[in-house]
Amino acid sequence: AGEILTRYPDKKVVITDRTEELCAQFFRPKTRTYAKKWLEERGAEVVLGDPIDGKFPDLKIDEKGCTLRSGRRLTGDIVYKCMGFRPCTEWVKDSLPPGCMDKGGYLKVNDHLQLDVCGKTVFAMGDCMIHSSNEVKLGHTAEVNAHLVAENVRRMAKRKPLLPYPKGVVGASKTPRIYALSLGKYDGSLGFNSLVVNGSMAAFFKWMVEWTKILACREVLVGIAFWQFSDITANFLGRTLVRTTSVDDDKDE
């Protein structure tokens, strides 16, 4: 929405969220307040606390709009469905033994991110799995998942004890909640546990994250070094100055 309002300021944008606050599950209060104000100042209509009518997967939403539980109809030239009720795991369902998935379609893993019922030789990570930590599904947590799985595969090959998640990677019982929300090209909101930074600095950080991540994927040394340093720093800060244990508290610093 931020990119549309920045590039096409005359476009009418409507955002609806079933909760009373914008993206309450993912973002800190300062981020939610800042983003809502930013959107509304640019003419967006933010409709909160009025879910789309129906029950998943039979929601009253189509390519021209949606009907809310209140009976209100929202229409538009384009409808973006930014929601995720079930992981895309149906394709692997027939390849796994019974008991691998819960009722929501998530793959059930142990503390080493293994599927116990598969003889502990199959790992699952990211949005498709469910772990006892019940952490929020974010890009950063998916990467932490991947780090642990890669290390545990190496340890399994060397017959070493496997590391538990997430302490085996981040050194704490919870993964730091890190996010960078874009609001157009030059604005945004950056969150690290209870610490929130709004404005152009957040936008610059988001750009730097994307740029260095691409370099790392291309195996360019500066990108690899940046992300190795960033991971170490994030885990250290999460254990000391901006403790990860505060992530469930609804208070900002």
UniProtKB/TrEMBL annotation:
Q: Which GO terms describe its cellular component?
A: cytoplasm
Sorted keywords for this record are: FAD, Flavoprotein, Oxidoreductase
Q: Which Gene3D superfamilies match?
A: 3.50.50.100
SUPFAM superfamilies for the chain: FAD/NAD(P)-binding domain (SSF51905)
Write down a Pfam family by its short name.
Pyr_redox_2
A Gene Ontology molecular-function term? flavin adenine dinucleotide binding
Q: Determine the domain of life of the protein's source.
A: Eukaryota
Give the FAD/NAD(P)-binding domain ranges: 7-142
Describe the family membership recorded for this protein in Swiss-Prot or TrEMBL. Answer: Belongs to the FAD-dependent oxidoreductase family.
State what protein this is by name: FAD/NAD(P)-binding domain-containing protein
Q: What organism is listed for this UniProt entry?
A: Amorphochlora amoebiformis
